Amino acid sequence: MAERHWRIGCGCGFWGDSAAGPAQLVARGDIDVLVLDYLSEITLSLLASARRKRPELGYTPDFIGQVMRPLAAEIAARKIKVIANAGGVNPRACAAALAAVLRELGVRLSIAVVVGDDVSAELAALRAAGVPDIESGRALPLQTVSANAYLGAFPIAAALARGADVVITGRCADSALTLAPLIHAFGWRAADFDELAMGSLAGHIIECGPQATGGITTDWRAVAADWDDMGYPIVECSADGSFLVTKAAGTGGLVTAATVAEQITYEVHDPGRYVLPDVVCDLTSVALTDLGENRVRVTGARGLPATPSYKVSLTYSDGYRCTATLMIVGTDAAEKARHVAAAVLKRTRRLFADSGLSDYRAVSVEVLGAEAMYGPHARAQATREVILKIAVAHSQERALELFAREIYPSATSMAQGITGFAGGRPAVQPVVRLASCLIPKERVHAQVELQDGPGQAVPVGPAPAARATAEPGLALLGEWWLQQGDPYGRRTSAGGLVFLIVLFALLGVVGKHAMNSPFGWHFNDDDNNWSMHLFGQEHDADRQFDQAFGANGKLTIDNPHGDVSISASTDDRIHVSAHQTVYTSSDRDAEKQLAKLRPELNINGNEATLKTQNIDRGSVDLTVQVPANTSISMKAGRGNVAVNGLNGTIGVDAGHGNVTLNKIGGAATARMSGGDFSAHALASTLSVSGRTEDANVSDVQGKVTLEGDFLGEVNVTKLDAPLSFHSSRTTFAPSASPNKNGIPRITCRPYRPR
User: Tens digit of pLDDT for each residue in 430-441?
Assistant: First the structure.
């Protein structure tokens, strides 16, 4: 496709969002693609209930009436692609309704639907295999309202490739709506992990509409005057994955590094491993550059292979609920409200007993206006106007109908000042709860259907490194277990034992299938290289670089996969030895991959950069010698880092590996994402942050700052300056022997992630 930027705007962040968003983007956004995100887990359950009552329903009607009917002609004239998950649990019906409206308007737009996310038919097999609820570990519910897999972006991209102007989906990852047109536009493949991660991040930033343009900004006063015309977010994306976040000119809101950063952290449990259907995103190295005029450049997301399963959201009925509200005004309003709530509950419980009904399953009482959310720290007890909110749950609808009838009699039998009956008697509603599980991707079959043509089976973009088939119960149990631990908690021997049991079980099952595989996987005494069978034959190459470099220069290193070792040279030159390794099935492909993996060394005056590429099944081990006074700035992905005998400043951003610093003269910083850290004989300050296993620090003359999550032991000895230590949990063992300045001052307080 053309190497131009693609502008994608999100005009809807949820079902019920303002109709002004799509209209704004179509008229003023200069966009190529309009995406609309309607679905949440509860939305799907509501749509499933609607479809049970009327088979032609089950989609979000707002998409037809508030977006496409008024905007279809302009969308067609501007040649804007539209991608919406408005199909809910009935995307075919949504497409049919849209087609009828377009015929009525005389507008020609090609419509495609993506189906296959409904996995209700697979639940029995998953239950039989022992697949658990991700959150609780309990068995999956027997009766469900809906069960939908989060599909990825590749089926949507396939629909665009077939010429669709409008793509209607059911459940998919929210960010997939944005990633899909980028896959289509730039030809990204399932193994282009970094590009997929960046495209997913772009989608994540805009998926909630104006949340990214100041809608949830902490500095709310900066945008309050523009709330009536908030700008909806736009991403301007390039083929390398980088993008700009902006909004339509002349609209309200604000796009700054702060507003974008606030949205990036929204609903991301682990920024180092944000799991999506098409890729696992590492957001820990994302960089935001504020360009001014509501434009922020985003770079730095890294991608890892996708998991072999989809997440499934299941909704199920769990009794009934009812919520009543009353306004109470006058002196002692808050105290009156609490007494009214107690009296209503006491009366209804007595009536339940008289009628043979059980007690409430749950009760919640809040006095709004008296700072109920602050609990014992509330400061507004003397307020003269409150809203009493009583929410109750019960297994039987009849019980809550009785509760609803007993609310308003309080006006004549309880406190003075009760008012606010305009809403009528509170309604009893069914409770719909959420459960989640994993399903093997091979059990989910996405399909693209053009409104005027037959359906076409479409590959769903499975993870290239996750193709071995095992019994789903064991495979999904293992993946579930890996997701369970507290990300800030300590690993235990019991947990390791469980992991090993699961791991060996998985390997045994995979091995059984492999030995009987039609692909010829046969292991014997002369053919036992598992890496060759799983990833291809190992191919190696060695390269050397030797260039002049200033005595006080700065070297920046970026090595996504492989070890890095740096030490001092005896001359004013940079010496680099690179050992490259790739795994592939042919010599020709190996030559291509090794060529891509060749390190690039660029020197500009006193600054040098050493960079290797991130390719699938490839790594580079770097051994570097530089003048002793060189400063180092390093980004390391998966691999160990060792720096020895340098006098310049050292900065290491480590992905997954150990970091060792020895005999460093300048200030040293390390950001960890797992692995052990060791530092010895440092003449200046040391700062370590992030997530670390064991840490050993000794003989440091400057201040030492340890901040983050330390999952193993921390041993600190022989410090000449204060230690500042912040951690969630650790075993801390300082030296018992004072050094020449005595035992240093230690500051320890609980760590709270910012």
Answer: 888 889 999 999
pLDDT at 351 over 50: yes
Q: Are residues 641 and 590 in the same domain?
A: yes
Collapse the DSSP code of 622 into the 3-class scheme (helix H, G, I; strand E, B; otherwise coil) and give the result. Answer: strand
Distance CA 716, CA 705 (A): 11
Residue 434 lies in a domain: no
3-state helix, strand, coil in the chain (%, to 5): 30, 35, 35
Is the pLDDT reported for residue 471 higher than 90?
Answer: no
Comparing 113-117, 413-417, 435-439, 686-690, the range with the smallest average pLDDT is 413-417
Stated as kind and residue range, the H or E segment containing 509 is helix 493-515
Question: Which of 415 and 495 is assigned the larger pLDDT?
Answer: 415
pLDDT of 671 reads 93
Please give the span between the terminal C-alpha atoms of the chain, in angstroms, as a whole number: 41
Sequence-separated (6 or more) residues with CB below 8 Å from residue 51: 57, 58, 89, 90
CA–CA dist 379, 241 (Å, integer):
50
Same domain membership, residue 113 and residue 18: yes
User: Would you tell me the crossing angle of helices 69-78 and 20-28 to the nearest 10 degrees?
Assistant: 20
Question: Which H or E element spans position 720?
Answer: none
Is the residue at 460 inside a domain? no
CA dist 305 and 95 (Å) reads 33
Instruction: Give the pair of three-digit tokens for residue 357.
Output: 């009904």
Q: What is the mean pLDDT of residues 121-145?
A: 89
Q: What is the DSSP string of 140-162?
A: PPSS-SEEEE-B-SHHHHHHHHT
Bigger pLDDT: 52 or 128? Answer: 128
| Average confidence (pLDDT) over 363-383 | 85
488/711 Cα distance (integer angstroms):
7
pTM (two decimals): 0.62
Q: Give dist(CA 22, CA 44) in Å, integer.
A: 22
Average pLDDT score over residue span 308-332: 92
Q: Are 650 and 624 in contact (CB under 8 A)?
A: no
- Rounded CA-CA distance 221/254 in Å is 11
Antiparallel, parallel or unpaired: β 447-450 and 695-700: unpaired
373 shares a domain with 251:
no
Q: Is residue 323 part of a domain?
A: no
CB 682 within 8 A of CB 668: yes
Which token pair is 452?
């005027």
Q: Rounded CA gap, 131 and 127, in Å?
A: 6
**Same domain, residue pair 33 and 136:** yes
Do residues 283 and 387 share a domain? no
Residues 80 and 134 in one domain: yes
- Residue 145: burial class (beta carbons within 10 Å; 0-12, 13-18, 19+): buried
For residues 254 and 362, membership in a common domain is answered with: no
Nearest to 633 by CA among 553, 547, 699: 553
Q: How many independent structural domains does the chain possess? A: 3
89, 93, 95, 101 alpha-carbon torsion, rounded to 10°: -130
Give the C-alpha separation, 8 to 233, whole Å: 8
pLDDT at 1: 39
Q: What pLDDT is attached to residue 498?
A: 46
Rounded Cα–Cα distance for residues 452 and 201 (Å): 34
| In-domain check, residue 624 | yes
Structural domain of 369:
331-416
Q: Which helix (H) or strand (E) holds 261?
A: helix 257-264
